[in-house]
Design goal:
Elements (H helix, E strand, L loop, with lengths): L6 E4 L7 H5 L7 E7 L11 H12 L3 E5 L5 H10 L4 E4 L15 H8 L5 E5 L13 H15 L4 E3 L12 H11 L5 H15 L6
Parallel strand pairs: 1-2, 2-3, 3-4, 4-5, 5-6
Helix pairs in contact: 3-4, 5-6
Amino acid sequence: MMKIAGVIAACRPEQPGFGKKTEPLLHPKLKGFRRVLHTQPDGVMEMPLFAENLAWLGKHNLTFDLCVLPRQLSAGARLVRAVPNLQFVLDHCGIPNIKGGELDPWRERIRELASFPNLACKISGVVAYSDPARVDAASIRPFVEHCIECFGWDRVLFGGDWPVCNLTSSIGDWVRIAREIVGSESIERQEKLFSRNAERIYRLSTK
């Protein structure tokens, strides 16, 4: 039987009364919230109310998953800077254009984001943004390795991104590709990526 260790719920920090609406949802299994911002106007996350409401999450020891497009990464950096008491997690490596092989300017923006100690990077979603005809370690490696280089082994965590990964591949293939990319690293580093960092950042019980 599958055991749910924690939940990251959807939220709307741009709405007034966010704290009052959210407080009844507080539960030991609730570890944080997430807002898919790449489907919203770019200015949403730059609303003062957005940062104010995220600060409320920090007071309750919750996390916030930041899901943004490459063009939104600079705005994301300003948001992370504005809420230093909150643990952020950048989803999907910042959604780089792996299919097009576009490392820049994504690469520099990731480096900027990594300078904030309250931000971790989720190594996830990358197969969904790959060319369906070429979902392999060679095309994905430069993007994954850059995120690991910038954030370090204590601030990266693996995400399966199921079922979205099925758009181009499968969860099994994604796990295989990820293991191939980091296969030459120490067991300690691999354990940090695939389990330990997520357990720490999301405060998950392993018992």
